[in-house]
Amino acid sequence: MPPNSDLRRLVGEPSAAMAVTDADHPAAASLADLDDIYRTQAPRLTRFFRRQLRGSDEPQDLVQETFARLASFMSRRPLANPAPYLHSIARNLLFERTRRRARRMASFHVPIGEGFDPAVDPDQAHQIEARDVMRVYQRALDELTEKTRTIFLLHRVEELTYKRIGDRLGISIPTVQYHVARALAHIDAALDQE
Questions:
Q1: Contact 166/173 with Cβ under 8 angstroms?
Q2: Which domains are present in the chain?
Q3: Is residue 116 classed as helix, strand or coil in its secondary structure?
Q4: Using CA atoms in the order 120, 121, 125, 128, what is the torsion angle rounded to 10 degrees?
Q5: Is the pTM above the cut of 0.90?
Q6: How far apart (Å, rounded) are the C-alpha atoms in residues 44 and 37?
Q7: Angle at alpha carbon of residue 22, lines to 16 and 23, rounded to 5°
Q8: Phi-psi region for residue 131, left (φ > 0), alpha (ψ -120 to 50) or beta?
């Protein structure tokens, strides 16, 4: 519940030159009662918005907007019974919110009807493509000589350096480089053919 200072910020603080007493201006009396109206009606409005907007964090904002609109109206015209008018403002705010949301969502709408062929889900397309690449990759590996395949897998899968591969297999670093380059060239050629 906003204190009187918050309500004055919503409604506006009258200047000293414009100061009127409740007896001089009936609207001033109505605005003075805005705090009482807030105390009685804000919890009801909060519950109303929460029921309508389940899981949303907007109810408090909408309650504030409702009271700001009520204050604006009451500054021009006094209301004998502001509660029905307040609930009318709340319903209109929900309607405006729904209409704005529908306009935003319209750009995302994709009609499905006769003659419309929905595209394959991008994730599914990527999975199919990845399986095809892996199939070609595996076939190219299988076509390599045993020695070239072993050296390539030690380098790419086990992430061993050329020196460690050379030490493990008893070959020179240039020989390791040759077999890795040969494997890469063969795999590239196989992938280019697909």
A1: yes
A2: 4-106 (no CATH), 122-193 (1.10.10.10)
A3: coil
A4: -100
A5: no
A6: 11
A7: 115
A8: alpha
Give the whole-angstrom CA distance, residue 153 versus residue 141.
9
Q: pLDDT value at position 32?
A: 61
Q: What share of the chain is helix, strand, coil (3-state, %, to 5)?
A: 70, 0, 30
**What is the rounded CA–CA span in Å between residue 76 and residue 12?**
13
Amino acid at 65: E
pLDDT at 34 over 70: yes
The H or E element containing residue 151 is helix 146-156
Nearest C-alpha neighbor of 7 from the set 30, 35, 37, 46: 35
The SS3 assignment for 95 reads helix
